[in-house]
Design a protein that fits this description.
Blueprint (H helix, E strand, L loop, with lengths): L11 E2 L10 E3 L9 E5 L1 H6 L9 H9 L10 E3 L2 E4 L2 E4 L5 E9 L3 E8 L14 E2 H16 L6 E13 L3 E11 L5 H10 L2 H15 L9 H23 L1 E2 L21 E2 L23 H20 L3 H12 L2 H16 L9 H14 L4 H9 L12 H15 L5 H11 L7 H14 L3 H10 L30
Antiparallel strand pairs: 1-7, 2-4, 3-10, 5-6, 7-8, 8-11, 9-11, 10-11, 12-13
């Protein structure tokens, strides 16, 4: 431990490591040979109450590579399991390490987590390291999601290690510092249910309630409250993904957080042309996690979570199953209501009418049929520039446009208010896949981070309708090959 790290204003607590030892293993990061701090999130550091002046080139590199452990930190690797593409397996932090929980201003407890920090007891024959490209990708996408107003883990820093990482090719090693409300996952509960005792499962559930659902004391059945609250959070989260065309790519149960934050930005990407069947992940051969399947997968994952809680929901298993099924049955309505509220806003609609669903479905159907861009279509409608919509010369679209305008006229709010609502709901810029790849190529191959920094600056203002973002709204050149993303493991 290094006392001088207190100059950074770290304020560590380690409540997770006070849980039963079955849930974690004490670990230490591997020593990076020549760490270099290449990306640092000053704004996030400020919000955490950290002294950014402390993280100069050397100390920042040492801390965020894991070469130096801050005072008060207690490094552990967390144990968890998960259903990966539908199949259950034992997992755990195979290439990550929780330094501890930093208590930020406002008494906010935030995990400080190193990703790519080396082998752990859960590495399963892996080296525990990470390559620079995937870590920069997570930095870009997680910060973009934050700016879009979508609950997410965030990225504080990326450090190159100076060491090679051996995958299909030799790549540059790196460590990402991830910040999260916690790293509790559905898979954590699956682990406790499979390998823990009843008492250990109960301790974990009580810990989750205290950390994320403190209003549970008002409920008659606090574990049912936990289930219902997670259902609400995940329904809302996934609806937000759908509204901006975000495709997670690997919605395994170990990648579903109890906090309701988006986690794991491996094979994720944003959709250009609207198509519910869109898949980017190279390992998702059958489209299990396609854009259009994400809401249903959310329900499936929540069903797995409910199964872990059965012993806590009721002493009688049949009654517990009935309680759980009743709770899960509410997911679809929660998701649909959240999605409809959001997509009405994308069209400037404040109230509800019975025919709204058809109006929305007709637009999406046209977008899919004519292979038009999801984000830019809503962007142009927000400007009330129908002539700029690629569908403009299509008779079907023109009829739809007239119906939409009539719909707006039937509500009390003015057209100006509708336009403002739309511009608050439709991003002018998203992390276009070709732009992300352009930034990664410059950084990884040429140590040029200027392309990435300009991209992140644009992504930090997604609802800015000034012209300075327009360059980043341009579509990629046409390609004969589909865009593919990879896990980066």
């Amino acid at each position: 431990m290094i006392d001088k790290s207190q100059n950074a204003a770290w304020n560590f607590d380690n409540s997770y490591s006070r849980l039963p030892e079955i849930f974690f293993s004490k670990t230490n990061p591997y020593a990076a040979s020549s760490p270099k701090l290449v990306v640092f999130n000053d704004k996030l550091a400020d919000s955490l109450g950290l002294n950014t002046e402390f993280f100069d080139e050397k100390m920042g590199a040492d801390i965020f590579s894991g070469n130096e452990i801050p005072s008060g930190a207690f490094p552990i690797a967390q144990a968890y399991a998960g259903h990966q593409f539908g199949y259950f397996t034992m997992l755990g932090d195979g290439r990550a390490m929780l330094l501890g929980e930093h208590i930020a201003p406002g008494d906010k407890r935030m995990d400080i987590h190193l990703k790519g920090s080396g082998e752990t007891p859960y590495s399963r024959r892996g080296d525990g390291k990470a390559a620079l490209g995937p870590m920069l990708r997570e930095y870009i996408i997680s910060e973009a999601m934050y700016a879009l107003g979508i609950p997410t883990t965030r990225s504080l820093a990326v450090v190159t290690t100076g060491d090679p990482v051996y995958r299909e090719t030799v790549q540059r090693g790196a460590v990402l510092t991830r910040v999260a409300s916690s790293h509790l996952r559905v898979g954590t509960f699956e682990f406790a249910s499979k390998w823990g005792s009843f008492e250990e499962l109960k301790i974990l559930a009580d810990y989750a309630l205290q950390r994320h659902f403190k209003d549970f004391e008002e409920s008659d059945n606090k574990y049912l409250y936990l289930l219902k609250e997670l259902i609400k959070r995940q329904a809302k989260l996934i609806s937000k993904w759908q509204l901006v065309g975000f495709i997670h790519g690997v919605m395994n149960t170990d990648n579903m957080t109890i906090s309701g934050e988006t986690i794991d930005y491996g094979p994720c990407a944003f959709m250009d042309s609207y198509d519910p069947a869109t898949v980017f992940s190279s390992i998702d051969e059958y489209g299990r996690y396609a854009y259009g399947n994400q809401p249903a997968i959310g329900a499936w994952n929540l069903a797995r979570f409910s199964e872990t809680l059965l012993p806590l929901l009721h002493d009688n298993r049949e009654k517990a199953i009935e309680i759980a099924q009743d709770a899960i049955s509410g997911y679809n309505d929660l998701y649909n209501n959240s999605f409809m509220l959001g997509i009405r806003a994308k069209l400037g609609i404040f109230n509800e009418e019975e025919d709204d669903k058809k109006l929305i479905e007709d637009l999406l159907s046209m977008m899919q049929k004519h292979n038009v861009d999801y984000t830019n279509t809503f962007y142009e409608l927000s400007h009330d520039n129908p002539q700029n919509v690629s569908l403009y010369k299509n008779d079907e679209f023109l009829k739809w446009y007239e119906l939409w305008q009539s719909r707006l006229e039937r509500q009390q709010e003015s057209k100006l208010m509708s336009k403002k609502l739309m511009q608050q709901s439709n991003p002018s810029v998203i992390p276009r896949n070709h732009r992300v790849e352009e930034a990664l190529e410059a950084a990884v191959n040429n140590d040029d981070y200027s392309v990435m920094n300009r991209l992140i600056d644009a992504l930090s203002k997604p609802y800015n309708y000034e012209n300075d973002n327009l360059e980043y709204s341009k579509l990629p050149p046409k390609s004969n090959a589909p865009y593919r993303t990879f896990c980066g493991t």
